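If you are new to this repository, start here. Below is one unmodified record pulled from the training split, so you can see the exact layout before writing a loader.
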Amino acid sequence: ERNFLGIDRKPNRLWNASKNAEARKANNVALLIAYIERLDEVLKDFKAEEIWITFPDPYPFQSSIKKRLTHPRFLAIYRKLLVENGRVNLKTDDDTLYEYTLQMIEEGKLKTNFVCNDIYSLEQIPFEYTIKTKYEKMHLEEGKKIKLVSFGF
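And here is the target side for that same chain:
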């Protein structure tokens, strides 16, 4: 059985997640209010197999590039938190964030596990890639393509 740790800086989103977990009678879920910038300090002895970044703020302007959750300063934190051969998964509808992430992977000489600029155009999709967040459902209703990048260190 897998365990899940949901992390967000906004308590209301974690409240919704807790209600969802409770409704599903999931006893393998923990939730944590934390800022990503401090995650390696907060989770000092914690190791994860996977990190999912689902529909983050893309911070589209050049002036806020350092806030993108696939910026090298965040990648360094994820590297500390992942087990060997662990992976980071980004799901987004945003072309700029998607392209930026691919650039960071290339510049950082990271290894890609899976890259797709329209996940639902594929005939076969691993189940874990089909789990939809509230935001993903909204983006799909708007006709947006969902992109997925899975990579490791």
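Two things worth knowing about this chain: Helices lie at 11-23, 39-42, 72-81, 95-107, 134-141. The chain has five helices and six strands.
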